[in-house]
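Worked example 3 (structure in, sequence out).
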């Protein structure tokens, strides 16, 4: 029996603080901890819509197709602002597989054929409702049917980057890749390369 079976949380109030690009709320929660003590907790939560990301792997060249784009939060904390990431995007009402097929095409120009769902994860459950669906797909050069680079109407400015899978762990260790979802998928790829062929 887990000690948390005695714990419970009741939401007392919610107030919206901002509602532009994403909604930010402040909550008050009556939390009864595992010792039976009650506390009034205050938390702020970003309400993010679900998203999806994908590892694009080319076994003939032993490379992964990534993207580089500007990220303001990285700049604010002193990290490289032009981040190398796996293709990703919000579901925008689509099911996760349809959304990631769309995003892969928009960002990289690759039309993915067989998409494999891997897992889903909350990226920052202490402050965000964001759930990301993780996928992988094997590609080859014939699958590239457009330039990619993102949508002009969304002001996306994306560079397509091809990296040898054998180099990605060193890039992570050096800090060249510091996006969590990308690190998760690249580590998965290194551990499962034989299953990607």
């Amino acid at each position: 029996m887990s000690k948390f079976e005695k714990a419970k949380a009741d939401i007392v109030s919610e107030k919206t603080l901002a509602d532009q690009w994403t909604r930010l709320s402040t909550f008050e929660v009556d939390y009864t901890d595992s010792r039976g003590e009650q506390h009034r907790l205050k938390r702020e939560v970003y309400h993010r819509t679900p998203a999806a990301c994908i590892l694009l792997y080319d076994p003939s060249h032993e490379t992964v197709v990534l993207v580089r784009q500007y990220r303001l939060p990285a700049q604010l904390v002193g990290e490289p602002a032009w981040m190398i990431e796996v293709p990703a995007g919000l579901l925008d009402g689509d099911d996760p597989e349809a959304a990631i097929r769309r995003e892969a095409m928009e960002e990289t120009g690759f039309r993915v054929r067989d998409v494999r769902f891997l897992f889903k994860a909350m990226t920052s459950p202490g402050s965000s409702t964001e759930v990301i669906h993780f996928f992988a797909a094997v590609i080859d050069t014939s699958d590239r049917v457009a330039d990619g680079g993102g949508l002009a109407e969304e002001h996306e400015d994306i560079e397509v980057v091809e990296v040898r899978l054998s180099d990605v762990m060193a890039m992570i260790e050096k800090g060249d890749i510091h996006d969590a979802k990308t690190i998760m998928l690249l580590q998965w790829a290194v551990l499962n390369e034989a299953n990607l062929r």
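Notes: Helices lie at 72-76, 96-108, 168-174, 180-191. The two ends are 43 Å apart (CA to CA).
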